[in-house]
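Summary of Year 1 activities. Much of the first year was spent building the evaluation harness for sequence design. The harness presents a backbone, in tokenized form, and records the residue chosen at every position. We chose the following record to illustrate the format because it has been used consistently in internal testing since the harness was completed.
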């Protein structure tokens, strides 16, 4: 589903988040949140990105907000477990 521009703009929320550490010369991260019918999408390409790359980020955000995910409602997690060594074990 491709949303109409007016619908997309009505659902767009622009935010500016202060950063604790300077990254790429910025201290505030600006992005757009898209409140879609199937959830939220996010568009936060950096300003130096060329249009083709930034448009891929935007398309992904729109897709997340407007298309039903085939795995909606489930989250697959992958994790690692570390073993804590105690005592005099020098291995």
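For this record, the design step produced the sequence shown next.
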């Amino acid at each position: 589903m491709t949303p109409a521009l007016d619908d997309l703009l009505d659902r767009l929320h622009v935010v500016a988040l202060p950063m604790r550490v300077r990254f790429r010369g910025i201290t505030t991260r600006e992005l757009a949140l898209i409140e879609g019918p199937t959830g939220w999408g996010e568009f936060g390409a950096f300003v130096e990105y060329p249009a083709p790359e930034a448009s891929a980020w935007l398309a992904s955000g729109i897709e997340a907000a407007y298309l039903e995910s085939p795995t909606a409602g489930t989250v697959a997690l992958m994790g690692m477990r570390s073993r804590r060594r105690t005592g005099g074990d020098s291995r």
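The domain at 5-66 is CATH 3.30.390.10 (Enolase-like; domain 1). Quantitative recovery figures across the full test set are reported in Table 2.
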